[in-house]
Design a protein that fits this description.
136 residues; 6 helices; 0% strand
């Protein structure tokens, strides 16, 4: 088994729980409050990591800039995700938002000049069909 697989699988499980917990939270509180409390949960995990690991922050300014942009994009995405979850069926919302790699693939193709092969284009096409099918 490859070394990244266990972490990827645990990530999959965590995100699966995240989708369920999102809907449960917005069934009881408004989407903005749910996002704020989710952010507190993320901060708690970050503090636990800081307290249990020897950590020396990296200082490359470009890396820090992109990491901050990552957080901002995540925050905006979560805001809209919680809003959508509060208004729609979670099975549809989580499926649509889980297709975010399509955006990453397109941006990596354009800006990072990463190759996208025929099979991958076919997969992208099928994902677009999935968006249409899951929207109804």
């Amino acid at each position: 088994m490859t070394t990244w697989f266990p972490a990827a699988f645990l990530s999959l499980l965590s995100f699966g729980l995240w989708g369920l917990f999102t809907k449960l939270s917005v069934m009881h509180i408004d989407s903005k409050s749910a996002m704020i409390f989710q952010t507190i949960g993320v901060v708690v995990i970050g503090l636990i990591m800081l307290s249990t690991m020897s950590f020396k922050p990296a200082t490359d300014t470009k890396g820090i800039f992109y990491a901050l942009l990552t957080g901002a994009a995540y925050g905006v995405g979560c805001l809209f995700y919680f809003f959508a979850a509060s208004k729609g069926k979670i099975i549809t919302v989580v499926t649509l938002t889980a297709l975010y790699p399509l955006i990453t693939i397109l941006l990596a193709y354009i800006f990072l000049k990463e190759a996208v092969h025929l099979k991958q284009w076919l997969g992208i096409g099928l994902a677009l069909v999935a968006i249409i099918l899951m929207s109804y």
